Amino acid sequence: MDANQNAHFEAKPADAEAAGTVIRVIPRMADLDPAAWNTLAGDSPFVQHAFLHALETTGCVGPDIGWEPVHLALFRNGQLEAAMPLYVKHHSWGEFVFDWAWADAYRRHGLNYYPKLVCCVPFSPVPGPRLLAKNDDDRATLIQAALKLTQDLGFSSFHILFPTEPDHAALNAAPLMHRSAFQFHWQNAGYSDFEDFLAAMKHDKRKKIHQERKKLDKLGVTFRWVEGRDSTDEDWDHFLRCYADTYARHRSDPHLNRAFFADLRANLPDNVVLIIADRNGMPIACSFCIKDNERLYGRHWGTLEYVPGLHFETCYQQGIEYAIAHGLQVFEGGAQGEHKLARGLVPTATHSWHWLENAEFRDAVDRFLERETDAIAHYMDEMEGPFRREPSLSREMP
Fold first, then answer.
1. Most CB atoms within 10 A, among 225, 332, 334, 345?
2. CA 241, CA 248: separation in Å to the nearest integer?
3. Mean pLDDT across 374-378
4. Domain 189-328 CATH superfamily
5. 3-class SS string, 260-314
């Protein structure tokens, strides 16, 4: 599938009341009005026009790397009324909802799992709006259009990753399979400062964090919170060295490039934060975060030298302290990682929805997801939290 084909895809909803409504596949965010898109996207920086546009213009996504944009846009009387960030995928990298076993099962049965259609934010396992619409009827129309596109193209499947509550009703009403998982998020219980937060933790957890912080202090390690608007070229050079080093240690290349981060700094300066660790005045580590009015999202980190406790402090404790100081309600520490529990992050349910064209595989996966959901719920119940009085774990299913 190429961009020329995408531009010619057009569907009109069957509903007679949808006169003047048309759905198009848009191969470039540049072809959509930023203000109209952002009105639908709300506060989430990850689905802002500038974020998705930056991924495209800097080459972080594109057909040549298996992330081909095919965004759905619903126009009514010429006005953008609903939209879905959508990609043709030729692999499952950068999604964080793992379907490798499904792809392998297809392969073993002589079937092609790729390409597939995926509604998500590339390389960002961050829950947020996916069906960008003002009402459930338009959300349902987007789902129907995505399913039709999947079938028209002869693809194996359609997936929506990490949608949040406003999308759930429309997704539950569609012929899609629900999959549950969890991440570790910190919740602000009205803490006045970091010590107030630590006071709510169990003694052994509190003691360990105090000890780690004292050791870092003795080693001359200090931290700076640098807002995107106040950041310098030197700050970003340091972060990019740290970021690239993290991937090099795992013998891989970064998904995101210098141009992408420069674009975010220029176009979303109020949503970007660098947490920089200095040792005796010299920068040695950095974490990159994105924020909105309610949440801080820990996204990437790296260090130029090993210092005990530096990872936990730079990636988690400093993020929590920043959130408290700025009145944010949630700090999301990224995908996976039970070690985050000891740092005050608690299990929080995440969701995805899936549709497979092959009925036999669809039935098999549906049975698997039922067992997986039960296992995840049991696992979350069995986790021992870090607080003296445990808050309710966020494990509600939609």
1. 345
2. 10
3. 91
4. Gcn5-related N-acetyltransferase (GNAT) (3.40.630.30)
5. HHHHHHHHCHHHEEEEEEEECCEEEEEEEEEECCCEEEEEEEEECCCCCCHHHHH
